[in-house]
Design brief:
Layout: H1 12-16, E1 20-23, E2 30-33, H2 66-79, E3 83-84, E4 124-131, E5 149-159, H3 168-182, E6 190-199, E7 202-211, E8 214-227, E9 230-244, H4 245-253, H5 258-263, H6 265-274, H7 281-290, H8 302-313, H9 317-345, H10 354-372, H11 379-390, H12 396-399, H13 401-435, H14 443-453, H15 457-466, H16 477-485, H17 498-505, E10 512-513, H18 514-517, E11 523-532, E12 536-539, E13 541-542, E14 556-560, E15 563-573, E16 576-582, E17 591-596, H19 598-622, E18 628-632, E19 638-643, H20 650-665, E20 670-676, H21 677-684, E21 698-704, E22 708-711, E23 726-735, E24 738-745, H22 746-767, H23 774-803, E25 814-819, E26 822-828, H24 835-848, E27 852-859, E28 864-870, H25 872-876, H26 881-891, E29 895-898, E30 902-907, H27 913-927
Parallel strand pairs: 3-4, 10-13, 26-27
Antiparallel strand pairs: 1-2, 2-6, 4-5, 5-9, 6-7, 7-8, 8-9, 11-12, 11-17, 12-16, 14-15, 14-17, 15-16, 18-19, 19-24, 20-21, 21-22, 23-24, 25-26, 27-28, 28-30, 29-30
Helix pairs in contact: 2-4, 6-9, 8-9, 9-10, 9-11, 10-13, 13-15, 19-20, 23-24, 26-27
Length: about 950
Amino acid sequence: MKKFPKEEYSIPFFKEEGYVRKLCPKCKEYFWTQNPDQETCGEATPEGCTFYTFINNPPTRKSYSLREMREAFLSFFEKHGHTRIKPYPVVARWRDDIYLTHASIIDFQPYVTDGIAPPPANPLVIVQPCIRLVDIANTGPTFGRHLTIFEMGGHHAFNYPDKEVYWKDQTVRYHHEFITKELGVKSEEVIYKEDVWVGGGNAGPDVECIVRGLEVDTLVFMQYKVINNEFVKLPIRTVDTGYGIDRYAWLSQGVPSCFHAVYGGLLDKIFEMAEVGGIDNDLLMKVAEVSGLVSLDKTASRLEARRKIAEIVGMKVKELDELLLPIENVFTVADHTKCLGFILSEGIVPSNIQEGYLARLLFRRAYRLLKMLDITDKLYDIMNMQIEFWSKDYPHLKEMQNEIMEILSVEEEKFKETIKRGGGLVKRIAGELKTKNIPEIPVETLTELYDSHGLPPEIVKQFAEKEGLEAEVPENFYALIAERHMQAPRKVEEAKLEEKLETTVSNLAETEHLYYQDQYMKESDAKVVKVIDSEYVVLDKTCFYPEGGGQPADTGYLVFEGNKVEVVDVQKVGKVIIHKVKGTVPKENSLVSGVIDWEKRYSLMKNHTATHIVNGAARRVLGQHVWQFGTQKGVNRSRLDISHYRRLTLKEVHEIEKLANEVISQNISVETSRMPRSEAEKLYGFRLYQGGAIPGKEIRVVKIGDWDVEACAGTHLKNTGEIGFIKIIHSERVQDGVERLVYSVGISALKAVQEKEEKLWKLSEILNAPLDKLDKTAEKIVKELKEANTEKRKLIKEIAERESTVLGGRPEGEEIKEIEGIKIVMRDFKEAIDVDRMVQTANQLIKRDEAIVTIFYGTDGKNAWITVMVGKNALEKGANAGEIIREASAIIGGGGGGKPSFAQGGGTAVKKLQEAVKKAEETLKKQLKP
């Protein structure tokens, strides 16, 4: 990591207050202190620089609850000229590079910090709920130094080249005044430790504040952008402070853990539920004092950390572990259920991708801990307590309470199903590892099983041990998994156009967007600015809409000098719009007329507006957890993918369709406007970002009355009535947690209805039943078919019993051989192929004599089949039906497989059937042991 020189940290405040710079001999970091006798940096770390000395001995003037500390922080900076800002969501939908808000500065990156948009106030103060799942392994064992969800206080100042607000010196002065005069901590107890901060694409030097062993905040002086691991100076210097409001509350109370300080009585109730009690308070205080030694990303294991603590407190490691493990599990349950509640309250549905993956990770880890505490039945009680507790400060939790509970219920059932399936999966993997003489399931396999199948490593370990294998689970397994999924994958640009043309058009003026000035404009005159490769044309202005936001590009023609050239694609590259043409290209600086395919454009406008309407309807029918996951507009039909935790019912689909058409019938005005980003967010909230992050200083807002409002760059109608009619054609689950609605509008919707109606008429004719009795007729036919199949199976069984009664006087085509005391019954079923009959006959034979192997086969002239069944005695002699079928079915040009006791295969090479049967017999002979 880059290091900054001493000058970056030497500020007037330190000199005035008598601070001296020293090097910590243990962690090798520089720090500033007023105490010349201070030997170490004063932070309780795994390196053992010191222990916590605030436990049962708080340095503040009084004790603060989390709510009181939050207000003290906000009020202090308000009094010093900062504007109080409401917290942003914990799901960072305004960002396209990360999923969760893990620091207060995330609220203002990259648009404010890069100078693209102004801040909502300058300077400002905020307390932001943050989520950091990379700390998940340390949540609990470190007694609260690490939390997955916490509150970060930030006072931020954005310094422009022409406007200085305040920088390093004043930042530290504000901080020192808050901690000493407001909270009452003695100045000589405040240590400042040098460090370098990197996060969210930005970086800068920072100082961390240490009080009695606890790091309580970080003051970052952000002045660089990180590009390819290089620090590039930014024109804007940002004061980025992170005050640990939870840690400050802990410091002020001096209680054993941060969980005690934050959760209070709620934590006590979880202890009671888990029947974890009778804890010696003095011992707990001693353990808390040295808990800074624990960091599971730096120590080999939990037990190794335990040994250090056990030696200090004078206990045996095992005894200490048995005491602390249930306590830490209660701590972690309190943390994880709060964190999960916040994530679910913002519309995240647990799944196997993106934010949903992180929500599922939290749920399954919390559920496993509840199981260890034997209180899985208390999950809903705990979540209800969390919602009641935190909704006083974050009311949206209460508003989403019912949906949170329903999502938890669905997720619990999915987890149980996963565990049921997991046993067989691990058994198969164990078998493969044993054949390779591998005694332990590798960490890579544990990771794959969790990523692909949702199986927690602890469950895999239990299954593996039953199969005689080991499975060592890394202590920081969940932290490693979370870190891999915290950032959104970078979008791969279409290099074929973007990279090729970006440099060429970078110096051109921005294309004027006529399609925004008048979305009903069908043609326009323009000047040719540039022609590239006799294929791409840049105009000074255009009414052609470029592809974007799930809306296809306009097509049409360029008309010039008697030529009519087809426009086959339109793309936006930077600030320039490029038209791809097919045929003769116009000359540069010449005038052209652009004519769009209006029928296509108008249909896309209808479909795009319909997407907003359907999304709003889905949210009203299914709940506020519904967010747009993806969309694609088409001319004849479109699709909308939404987040939802279960399959849609027909009733729900019909209700969504009904509400959407009611909006159309109301002829609601569709308004579009451009607004400063912060103003739009303040006015409409973060529901704006249905389609994902929108770049730029300003965003284009599309508002359909009180029905729906989104940031959207697409073309839209003037009112909803122009759509005419919406028909949802079908729905499907495209992946776990995502439902797809496919729909058509206008005439295309009418055609879709007529196509279904036509199918019903045909079905009515086939079944010879009127439309109004079609369902009853179909039910009757299905019932009769089931009864016929039942009768068929009964007859097949009777035939099989007769055919297997005597092993002499065989049916035609049957042959019996004996090898090593095992009878081989071979029968050619000829054209009378019925696999059920083959199986039933073989079953009856083996019931009578377990020293039998049946090889049954047949062909209908187009396909050939072979089935092999092996009795128990034959299995013990080495017969394996699966291996026999693999060898034989390859000859007839097909495939097959099964278990050692039964397998079947088939193929189209019917002329080679006898050769395949012979191969089956030869394979069996090799298998049978003397």
